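tl;dr need the bound structure. longer version: we got a ligand (S-adenosyl-L-homocysteine) that a collaborator sent over and nobodys looked at where it sits. i said id run it. heres the input, straight from their email, havent touched it
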Amino acid sequence: MMALQQKRCELEEQGCGGCNLLSLPYEKQLQKKQKELKALLGKFRKLQPILGTEEPWHYRNKVISTFTYHERKLDSGIYIQGTHKVLPVKSCLLHQPALDEAVEAVRQAARVCKYKPYDEERHTGLLRHVLARHSLLTDEVMVVLVTASPVLPGAKNFVKEVRRRCPKVSTIIQNINPRATSAVLGYQEKILCGRGYIEDELCGVRFQIAASSFYQVNPKQTEVLYQTAISAAKLDGSQSVLDAYCGVGTIGLTAAGKARSVLGVELNKKAVQCALENARKNGIKNARFLCEDATKFIQKMADRGEHVDVVFMDPPRAGSTQEFLDAVSRMKPDSIVYISCNPETLKRDLEILVKKDWKVEMIQGVDLFPGTKHVETVVLLSQQKPDDTIEIDLDLDELDATSAELKATYKEIKD
Ligand code: SAH
């Protein structure tokens, strides 16, 4: 990999905390992530070397900026780490530059319209956050203006002022969040202009993304992640596939060309609508999507004695549930491909699966979040056959105190 220039950010000293690995050269960041993954997951299997990127800057396709008063003017930025104090941010080394342009246009338009930032303590004011998403495919930006109450005076003028300053903004949505909560989005939405969604492309499939849908923030590395996950499953066109926690259907629809059938399950209703629309628009006829809790759904499948050949599971940071893992084991697919954004909950869930005689065949880190401590991991599991052995990857020093028994066994094998 080419040597990548290191950059400094003045916001770091002011407590931004968004890019906690910024001071490390990119190669060192990758080494650190690999080491951390190995410490957590090495006991299951020897890890593949982490897959890094040639472009560790300006990769983020999504930004959330929170409104505040700064020097008596409406401004917006990021919460200082561990506080509810907003640090104004004009530009960020991780954002697609079009996002910073769009957010600047929103700030200026909001000042023209004399909107007031929402005050969390007093529950006064109107504007809470702006969420903006960029599409690499179309170079368009979707703006979601989160307000504390439904009435946005002079909305037409606001739209005009934003689009005049940033023509890349193709759609603006007002999201209403009156709740006293740290969740950014509320449940009610109004489209102020445009289609109310944005389109992007991953692995040759087009995706429609709604304001509230989950969508990976680094599109180039997402392709690497999905290719890794799909090739791990060794699809040959004959398998039935379950895409659990499917979001807008990205993994299932990317896999559909190599599978007999795809069934996706997801809790967010808007995301499921997008997944169905994505299947239709791409002419993919062998994929279905359902809106349900993944655990309840898979339990019902297992109770009915239904079978799938391959399960992709990509749960949120909290990981999956004991009940999901019990049910997936009862269904006995040939393989499980677990895609995780949190190695800690991944470790917990793998421990459960290994106890149920699943064998870890491959562990691969993929860096989707340069500059930050986060990492994605793909794990392939298959049903263990009685005479299988696994090569593990452990440093004795890295084992925690609780695994004394394992330590002793491992030392015995090693010696
Ligand atoms: N596979 C998708 C989304 C992964 S993020 C992608 O790669 O883009 C995790 C997804 O799980 C989110 O879309 C979230 O809405 C969904 N989710 C969270 N809890 C869930 C549950 N209990 N059942 C089903 N889906 C859930």
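gonna send this back to them w/ a short note. The first strand starts at residue 48 and ends at 51.
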